[in-house]
Amino acid sequence: MSCSREGHEVPGRLRPRSSNHSRRQPMSTLHPHLVMGGLALTLVGCMSHEPGPIHALTFEKDLKPLFLRHCLECHGVETKEAGLDMSTVANMLTGGESGPALVQGAPEESILLHLIEDGHMPPDGEPLSRDETALVRRWIAEGAN
Ligand code: HEC
Asked: How far is the CA of 24 from the centre of ligand 1 (A)?
Protein backbone atom coordinates (compact mmCIF):
# COMPACT_ATOMS: atom_id res chain seq x y z
CA MET A 1 0.00 0.00 0.00
CA SER A 2 2.71 2.48 0.95
CA CYS A 3 4.42 1.65 -2.30
CA SER A 4 1.61 2.63 -4.61
CA ARG A 5 1.09 5.93 -2.77
CA GLU A 6 4.76 6.88 -3.13
CA GLY A 7 4.68 5.78 -6.74
CA HIS A 8 1.96 8.31 -7.47
CA GLU A 9 3.63 11.14 -5.56
CA VAL A 10 6.95 10.99 -7.35
CA PRO A 11 5.95 12.39 -10.76
CA GLY A 12 3.63 14.94 -9.15
CA ARG A 13 6.38 16.37 -6.99
CA LEU A 14 9.06 16.37 -9.62
CA ARG A 15 7.18 18.30 -12.27
CA PRO A 16 6.57 21.63 -10.46
CA ARG A 17 10.15 21.73 -9.14
CA SER A 18 11.86 20.85 -12.41
CA SER A 19 13.39 24.38 -12.63
CA ASN A 20 15.75 23.70 -9.73
CA HIS A 21 18.55 21.42 -10.91
CA SER A 22 20.45 21.14 -7.63
CA ARG A 23 17.31 19.86 -5.89
CA ARG A 24 16.36 17.44 -8.58
CA GLN A 25 19.55 15.51 -8.42
CA PRO A 26 19.35 14.20 -4.87
CA MET A 27 15.67 13.47 -5.39
CA SER A 28 16.21 11.48 -8.53
CA THR A 29 18.77 9.33 -6.74
CA LEU A 30 16.63 8.96 -3.64
CA HIS A 31 13.26 8.18 -5.13
CA PRO A 32 14.14 5.16 -7.21
CA HIS A 33 15.25 3.53 -3.96
CA LEU A 34 12.03 4.41 -2.21
CA VAL A 35 10.01 3.19 -5.14
CA MET A 36 11.98 -0.02 -5.42
CA GLY A 37 11.80 -0.61 -1.70
CA GLY A 38 8.09 0.02 -1.66
CA LEU A 39 7.57 -2.19 -4.66
CA ALA A 40 9.52 -5.00 -3.07
CA LEU A 41 7.48 -4.67 0.12
CA THR A 42 4.25 -4.67 -1.85
CA LEU A 43 5.29 -7.77 -3.75
CA VAL A 44 6.29 -9.60 -0.57
CA GLY A 45 3.04 -8.51 1.04
CA CYS A 46 0.96 -9.73 -1.86
CA MET A 47 2.78 -13.03 -2.07
CA SER A 48 2.27 -13.82 1.60
CA HIS A 49 -1.46 -13.15 1.29
CA GLU A 50 -2.07 -15.18 -1.82
CA PRO A 51 -3.10 -18.78 -1.33
CA GLY A 52 -0.30 -19.95 -3.62
CA PRO A 53 0.11 -23.56 -4.68
CA ILE A 54 -1.82 -25.95 -2.44
CA HIS A 55 0.69 -27.59 -0.14
CA ALA A 56 0.57 -31.30 0.56
CA LEU A 57 -0.61 -32.07 4.07
CA THR A 58 1.96 -33.58 6.41
CA PHE A 59 1.51 -35.61 9.57
CA GLU A 60 3.80 -33.45 11.69
CA LYS A 61 2.37 -30.11 10.64
CA ASP A 62 -1.28 -30.75 9.87
CA LEU A 63 -2.42 -34.02 11.40
CA LYS A 64 -0.52 -34.45 14.64
CA PRO A 65 -2.18 -31.48 16.38
CA LEU A 66 -5.57 -32.93 15.46
CA PHE A 67 -4.69 -36.47 16.59
CA LEU A 68 -3.21 -35.04 19.79
CA ARG A 69 -6.56 -33.51 20.62
CA HIS A 70 -8.72 -36.48 19.65
CA CYS A 71 -6.76 -39.73 19.61
CA LEU A 72 -3.32 -39.79 21.19
CA GLU A 73 -4.42 -39.98 24.80
CA CYS A 74 -5.60 -43.53 24.01
CA HIS A 75 -3.38 -44.36 21.02
CA GLY A 76 -0.04 -42.88 22.01
CA VAL A 77 3.36 -44.11 23.06
CA GLU A 78 2.16 -44.97 26.59
CA THR A 79 -1.44 -46.08 26.11
CA LYS A 80 -1.97 -48.18 23.03
CA GLU A 81 -5.63 -49.14 22.99
CA ALA A 82 -6.12 -52.18 20.72
CA GLY A 83 -2.35 -52.16 20.23
CA LEU A 84 -2.50 -49.00 18.12
CA ASP A 85 0.04 -46.18 18.51
CA MET A 86 -0.83 -43.17 16.36
CA SER A 87 2.17 -41.03 17.32
CA THR A 88 4.01 -41.72 14.05
CA VAL A 89 3.03 -42.61 10.49
CA ALA A 90 5.16 -45.76 10.69
CA ASN A 91 3.24 -46.98 13.74
CA MET A 92 -0.11 -46.33 12.07
CA LEU A 93 1.06 -48.31 9.04
CA THR A 94 1.94 -51.19 11.36
CA GLY A 95 -1.40 -50.65 13.07
CA GLY A 96 -2.92 -52.58 15.97
CA GLU A 97 -4.84 -55.78 16.64
CA SER A 98 -6.82 -55.43 13.41
CA GLY A 99 -3.76 -54.83 11.24
CA PRO A 100 -2.69 -51.62 9.49
CA ALA A 101 -4.77 -48.62 10.59
CA LEU A 102 -3.56 -46.56 7.67
CA VAL A 103 -2.90 -47.30 4.00
CA GLN A 104 -1.07 -44.49 2.23
CA GLY A 105 -3.01 -43.12 -0.73
CA ALA A 106 -6.03 -45.32 0.04
CA PRO A 107 -8.63 -43.68 2.30
CA GLU A 108 -11.12 -46.53 1.70
CA GLU A 109 -8.66 -49.10 3.03
CA SER A 110 -7.65 -47.08 6.07
CA ILE A 111 -9.43 -48.41 9.16
CA LEU A 112 -8.74 -45.27 11.17
CA LEU A 113 -10.67 -43.15 8.70
CA HIS A 114 -13.62 -45.58 8.67
CA LEU A 115 -13.80 -45.50 12.45
CA ILE A 116 -13.72 -41.71 12.47
CA GLU A 117 -16.39 -41.42 9.76
CA ASP A 118 -18.59 -44.00 11.52
CA GLY A 119 -18.34 -41.94 14.69
CA HIS A 120 -16.79 -44.97 16.42
CA MET A 121 -13.57 -43.05 17.20
CA PRO A 122 -13.01 -41.28 19.46
CA PRO A 123 -15.33 -43.42 21.63
CA ASP A 124 -15.88 -40.51 23.96
CA GLY A 125 -14.91 -36.87 24.14
CA GLU A 126 -15.11 -34.39 21.31
CA PRO A 127 -15.78 -35.99 17.89
CA LEU A 128 -13.98 -34.70 14.82
CA SER A 129 -15.74 -31.94 12.93
CA ARG A 130 -16.68 -32.42 9.31
CA ASP A 131 -13.69 -30.30 8.23
CA GLU A 132 -11.30 -32.28 10.41
CA THR A 133 -12.61 -35.56 9.02
CA ALA A 134 -12.20 -34.21 5.48
CA LEU A 135 -8.63 -33.19 6.35
CA VAL A 136 -7.78 -36.73 7.47
CA ARG A 137 -9.27 -38.14 4.27
CA ARG A 138 -7.35 -35.68 2.10
CA TRP A 139 -4.10 -36.37 3.94
CA ILE A 140 -4.46 -40.14 3.37
CA ALA A 141 -5.42 -39.61 -0.29
CA GLU A 142 -2.32 -37.45 -0.78
CA GLY A 143 -0.11 -40.26 0.47
CA ALA A 144 -0.20 -39.75 4.26
CA ASN A 145 3.32 -38.45 4.65
C1 HEC B 1 -10.89 -42.71 25.02
C2 HEC B 1 -9.92 -43.57 24.37
C3 HEC B 1 -9.84 -43.55 22.87
C4 HEC B 1 -9.72 -42.47 22.04
C5 HEC B 1 -9.68 -40.98 22.42
C6 HEC B 1 -9.58 -42.99 20.70
N7 HEC B 1 -9.64 -44.34 20.71
FE8 HEC B 1 -9.42 -45.57 19.12
N9 HEC B 1 -9.71 -47.19 20.29
C10 HEC B 1 -9.97 -47.16 21.66
C11 HEC B 1 -10.29 -48.50 22.11
C12 HEC B 1 -10.66 -48.87 23.53
C13 HEC B 1 -10.20 -49.34 20.98
C14 HEC B 1 -10.48 -50.85 20.91
C15 HEC B 1 -11.96 -51.13 21.02
C16 HEC B 1 -12.77 -50.55 19.92
O17 HEC B 1 -12.46 -50.75 18.72
O18 HEC B 1 -13.76 -49.88 20.25
C19 HEC B 1 -9.83 -48.48 19.88
C20 HEC B 1 -9.60 -48.95 18.58
C21 HEC B 1 -9.19 -48.16 17.53
C22 HEC B 1 -8.80 -48.66 16.23
C23 HEC B 1 -8.72 -50.12 15.82
C24 HEC B 1 -7.34 -50.61 16.13
C25 HEC B 1 -7.17 -52.10 15.87
O26 HEC B 1 -6.12 -52.43 15.28
O27 HEC B 1 -8.07 -52.85 16.23
C28 HEC B 1 -8.49 -47.59 15.47
C29 HEC B 1 -8.02 -47.60 14.01
C30 HEC B 1 -8.70 -46.42 16.28
N31 HEC B 1 -9.11 -46.79 17.53
C32 HEC B 1 -8.53 -45.13 15.82
C33 HEC B 1 -8.75 -44.00 16.62
C34 HEC B 1 -8.67 -42.67 16.11
C35 HEC B 1 -8.35 -42.29 14.67
C36 HEC B 1 -8.92 -41.84 17.15
C37 HEC B 1 -9.02 -40.34 17.13
C38 HEC B 1 -9.91 -39.77 16.15
C39 HEC B 1 -9.16 -42.68 18.31
N40 HEC B 1 -9.06 -43.98 17.94
C41 HEC B 1 -9.44 -42.18 19.56
C42 HEC B 1 -9.91 -46.04 22.45
C43 HEC B 1 -9.80 -44.73 22.00
From this structure: 74
Q: Which ligand 1 atom is the nearest neighbour of the CA of 67?
A: 37
Global pTM reads 0.72
Residues 37 and 76 in one domain: no
d(C-alpha 30, C-alpha 61), whole Å: 44
Mean per-residue pLDDT over the chain, rounded: 80
Is 7 part of a structural domain of the chain? yes
16-74 pLDDT tens trace: 554 455 555 555 555 655 555 555 555 554 455 555 667 889 999 999 999 999 999 99
Domain holding 100, by residue range, is 59-141
Under DSSP, the state recorded for 83 is G
Question: Rounded to the nearest 10 degrees, how much is the dihedral formed by the CA atoms of 24, 28, 31, 32?
Answer: 170
**Closest residue to atom 7 of ligand 1, CA basis:** 122
Ligand 1 centre and the CA of 141: distance in Å? 21
Q: Would you list the DSSP string of 63-88?
A: IHHHHHHHTTTTBSSS-BGGG---SS
